Amino acid sequence: MSALMTGGCTSPPPIEGPVSLGQIAAVSGPRVRPDRVIEDSRCPRDVQCVQAGRLIVRVTVFGGGWSREMDLTLGMPVPVADGSLTLVDAVPASADQPRRYRFTFRFQGGL
Question: Distance between CA 74 and CA 83 in Å, rounded?
Answer without folding.
Answer: 17
